[in-house]
Amino acid sequence: MRFQALAISLVVSVATACTGAEGSIEDLGGNGNPADPSNPGEDRDAGGVDPGVTPDPTGTGDGGGVTVGKGTPNPFNPKGEGSSGVKLDPEGNIVIDPSGFAGGTSPVIWVANSAEGTVSKIDTRTLKELARYRTGPASPDPSRTTVSLNGDVVVVNRGGASATKIAANPAECTGPGTGTSAGGTDVRAWGDDKCVLWNTKFDSGSLGRAAAFDAEKGLDGELSTSVWVGLWSKSEMVQLDSKTGAIKATVNVAPLKPYGAAIDANHNVWVWGGGVGYINGPTKKFTTIANPPCAYGIAVDPKGRVWTSGSGCVARYDVAAAKWDSVKVDGFNRGLAVDAKGSVWVANTGFGVHQLDTESMAVVKSIPLGSAAKNFVGMAIDFDGMVWSINQGESTAYKIDPKSYAVTTVASGKGPYTYSDMTGFQLRNAADPFGKYLHLFKGCGATARWLKLDYKATTVAGTSITIRARAGATLAAVKAAPWLPVAKVPGDVPPIDIAAKLGDAAKGEYLEVEFRLESITSATTPILSSINVLSTCPPTIN
Length: 542
Known about the structure:
mainly beta; six-stranded mixed β-sheet; six-stranded antiparallel β-sheet; 542 residues
């Protein structure tokens, strides 16, 4: 029997992080050296690996070992497929990157096309419509979208009185159907697209409107375990299981009639609809607050402040002070979105977009957009920091560069009415900082069995790392395999008996591990310095 050890020194420390005097995320200066202005960080490759390209799996070799991480011939690649919200510090460790949510996969915006009962999946970089899906039978009239921490979308249908979940990752398209959409003109019949995972029906006439994924992490390591849907005519917010679409809870929010919703870092569900209130996520208790000076759109910023926009103004609610502030912004203001650079962006129906400073609330820039057919409804920020507004009148999405204010456009389906979170950035921006790093290993062959997992990691108070793993005989098999929980830092002491953790699933040529880094504040980050595994190759018996 042949063993392959991936040798590495092992240290797990719950101590002050080595990212500057206080372990500050900001001190890390992007992916590069903060003292080097020519190396801004986010464009740096991962030790020679092109950003956004999945490298070959790290092989165990025929009899030698391999080390993965800081100071090794096999550095981490934070921009590899599946990784997001992480970067390299100047020493080559993996740390949280609050501004790097996108990872190596191309970000997506989901635009609900109300007039034709579909949702468009658009690549925000190439401006190519990757797919278009029906959101329900007959004429469902989709309007609200909400995007999970994994990138999946739930679309709420007003006329169809239902909610539909669609997978973002093609590898997770496991719904019924014989195929899936491959572009804007490839719209499959309802029930025949395998990326459409579930559809939950509500009482006829309940008029689904508000929608918001949560930022919770399940016991099994899954992200965004619930999604909330507002039923306007019933004054109810319904909590759905994000995996199955099953109803978990129903909360009466009368006298409000849910029109919009947003989540904060404390898992409170903020609801607008004739007033503003919030549902305490864990207890499900609903509390109303003072009415805003104006309201139509609703969002939450990273400081937990609630923003609304409406006719003639934009308003901000300070939760600690229990106080609304507002600023005059002429016109009918609708959807709004908060970026990571200190601006809130507001769609103005007959004009275009306004940019406001989140601290002073002053209008920084007013950007006229569109032709005569102006009907700007929704706002979004993508994971490159670009600003998006949806013009229902032209069936067009407008992309704005927040530095140059250059504008590009892409056509959507007919009558897009999306005005809620279309990219998932609002959820990531408001939630506690976290990121995930994935690494793929290749064993000796088809008979490989995975035995041990070692890692070097450092955490400080308020930070943690959760580890999951999966294995498979082929690359496709490992990507399709379910993640299984393996360890948590602080808590578990490595090396981890991965054979026991995975059981019968601990076999196959490929092993993929996921390290999810979390913090309760942007001032600190856990650190992942290295990973190793131990595998064995039983001889093939003829």
